[in-house]
Amino acid sequence: MEPLERRRGLIEERLVSVVDGVEPDRLSDELRHVALSGGKRVRPTVTVLACETVGGEAAEAVDFGVGIELVHGASLVIDDIIDRSELRRGSASAWAEFGHGPAIVASDGLLGEAFALLSADPRATRVVAEAMVELGVGEATELSEVPETEAEYMTLARRKTGALFRAAAELGAIAADADAVAIEALGEYAERVGVAFQIRDDVLDAVADPATLGKPAGRDAEMDRPSVVQVTDLSPEEADERARAEAERAMDALSRIDAADSEARGYLEDLAEFVVDRER
User: This protein's superkingdom (predicted)?
Assistant: First the structure.
């Protein structure tokens, strides 16, 4: 098994065990539908790789990685309700499969399981709570105070997507008991990767084939939501250039770390390149 797939395997195994342990069975089934229906596991992989980069072991970060993935899954359930999106990762979204009420309960259940895992370290709980506040502000802004400039869009992207990426990396550093300088550098790296990810996501929504994307395309324009293409005069190609610039700044932040594991840092560098080249 490739080294990166081995790390993802650790995450997937723990994720399955957490979801399977949920009661009652109906709630477990709903959480399974959300958490185990695919996904690239980018955020928990960042958690594990960040931990290893600063000298920790992968196993030390798995619970925190699963925790951030569950928080992410909970946010997607709500996003799909807001967007009225019936597809997520090529399958029925939670509300389309179970109805609005059960979907909201599933989102709550995912958050509960996440914080049960994060509660092992108060620092981890604080990091994710702060990220959720930023995410909430971002979601509220998206619905009520539409950004009108590129700078306002970038602030929204940092809150909406960058915050959870930052938390993912900081959790890995916390698991490795890294110092404050390393935690901040990894956090900045991941936040910028998250912003690049969001910009590319907006571009894909505007130009991608839904069959390739795994969810409906064109939703931002249809719902008048503030994507980089809607808010600015940037063409999709120019927006992709902005994403690449963020990825380069992420690399700069990563270069400030005296890595204990060069392989793990190399995978983080690969991720910064992947998020701007992905097709779904």
Answer: Archaea
